[in-house]
Design a protein that fits this description.
The protein has 3 helices and 3 strands. It is of the alpha+beta class.
């Protein structure tokens, strides 16, 4: 990761996506959302959250 990359906590990602932190942790465990782990703590880049949102927006568009 680049030095100026902003890393978010699981709680911050959950707040941005309006989900519970356990949901974010499940996405991380499944590899649906990529992050880095420091001991027991996860950090997710803002760019990864944006990618995740874009992918899921396109998936929702196909349903209608």
């Amino acid at each position: 990761m680049v030095a100026d990359t902003v890393l978010l906590t699981v709680q911050q990602v959950a707040d941005r996506l309006a989900v519970q932190p356990i949901t974010v942790r499940r996405w991380l465990a499944r590899g649906e959302l990529k992050g880095v782990r420091f001991g027991r703590l996860w950090r997710i880049s803002e760019q990864e959250v944006e990618r995740f949102i874009r992918e899921h927006q396109h998936a929702d568009d196909d349903v209608t």
